[in-house]
């Protein structure tokens, strides 16, 4: 790896990380790897290919998959075989054959983790934490409690031992966790709607077989050598587990640059050349939040805002409710980026920049960038990679404002026409 790009959500998730990852994967096609460095299958990174009209919401697989980039699920990713197989079928039905490898040290979610998570969130009622309901917190909590209860990808390689571990989790961990959460076994059983723990485990074991047939498992930090590595983050800085000022509406994951930089540092220590690292903090021109928790000035958007109801990815669901909207605050964005960068302990060659998305839904003139000191290097005017313009091709002043749209030239006008065509064929969010 000579160059690295770290794609991070700057707010509450859903900022356009999939779009930026897809753009970079197309730019460096044939010589790049997409590494997932946090979170798990709760991610929903939308990518649309305006030329083929294909659209996919990526959870397990890297958002560079449509561009042909292989994916790597690192130590810091949480694997869910049931959801892996579900997404694999979705991709296959679209004629896509993804390439993917997984670290043997990655944690694995079981059906019980999902069931406990969903039962607890339903029980909370109006006091929901905003969980996606796929067991991320339960997986981390269980695996941190004792090595006996932990499940990692390496455990999936021995079928008999895996069956024994699942039985141990049900026999010993389940009653401990239900007691801690004040959940009764009877309440949990009602959530199964006629199924059983045995049926859940059977489905899980079948899924892990299919997953291992498709994915290669590696003990290394990546499955091969690439000149470009794109580190695709999940969720956003305001949901990170280290933001205890925003507790309890957080995720059990480091959503900033720390995990990615640790993975890069390992390679640097192995004498691999690292020329540059660009950390891309992605934000829409407005704020969204899909889940419980505060959202400053919720609903206070200018009349020019035309994004309401256009998001096909963040649909209403029992755990997160409806997608909520609010204005972007540059001071909060500035502070979030500074906090993330302040935790660095490495000496790697890092350059932080910003990517601004959804300019087709709210113009830059109507969003607040007054306090932002980081350069807005990427600007997206639509749902596809063709909609992205970079700072190198545009003319900006010191406050990140475009001097004149007339300076864009003929190439930019052609790109805008492609954007309009992309939107017209119905793939826009």
Description:
By secondary structure, the protein is of the alpha/beta class. The longest helix has 23 residues, at 159-181. The protein is globular. Strands 9-7-5-2-10-1-11-14-15-16 form a 10-stranded mixed beta sheet. A two-stranded antiparallel ribbon has the order 3-4. Mean pLDDT is 87; it is low at 393-412 and 417-429. The two termini are 34 Å apart. It has 2 domains: 3-73 and 227-424, no CATH class; 107-216, Orthogonal Bundle (Adenylosuccinate Synthetase, subunit A, domain 2). Helices cover 32% and strands 18% of the residues. It has helices spanning 17-27, 81-93, 111-124, 136-145, 159-181, 185-190, 197-214, 258-269, 330-342, 409-424, and strands at 3-9, 32-36, 45-49, 54-58, 71-73, 78-79, 100-103, 107-108, 216-218, 228-232, 276-284, 286-290, 323-327, 350-357, 376-380, 388-390. It has 10 helices and 16 strands.
